[in-house]
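Table S2 (continued). Query chain:
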Amino acid sequence: NLTFLTLIFLATGCSTISISNFQDGKPLGKGRVRVGIGSELSPMTNYGISGADINNPENFDTFIDSSDLADGQDSSWYFWGLYNLLVQYGVTDKIDIGVIPYLGLYGMNFGAKAFTKYAFMPEESAIQVAAVPYFGYSRLSAESDSPDPDDEWDSKLSQYNTIYYGLDVPVSWKFLYASLKVYSKTLNGRFTYWDKDVTHEPSLSSLSYGVAIGGDGFKTEGRDLGRTEIQIMYEKTPKDQWEPRLYVGWNKFFEFGGSKTD
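Corresponding output:
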């Protein structure tokens, strides 16, 4: 039923997106390839949402805000469990392209984003600056096997599709970087019901912005620990409340071929 599916989404089926690009201000170098594997603490796009508002079906039914949450529970609804594969290629000495497919730990949550990176500074500059526009999509879907005769609005299908795009502007020095971030996302729902000949497709858009701080080259016992990125974002909730949030990402790179940019 609807209540059961709501609990499933909140407990195990988080609709999440990848916002960590793991990019500093330096280009890879023409012909060079980077492959990375990692994990993120990621935004849950359907937090505070239980499905379509039956009385106003073009909108989502939002059931929480900061004051509704139990004591000690974080209203940002962090979700650790998004795993990604990064593939990046140096098209020229200043331009890279890449793709990051990702998969949620729980539920049928999956997606991908594509990005382009343009480096502005000459190779010999100590300070490197780049622009990284990106576009992404994710989907979370759950379907009930049988109807509940006691529930008038019994969900047969509950689906969340997220389309988002953004821009990172990383500035790096040696192995450290800081990146200005802004992205916009639109969450589109699709809900069908066993006992109703109707499909509701609500939609919700929001804007987020902030800064990421990251670095690589950290070593222990001679082993490279990969790149770590911390993001401090300011985001709008489904109830139009602006709240700060903190996200962490990690990625381990493997690079080969081409001409490496130091």
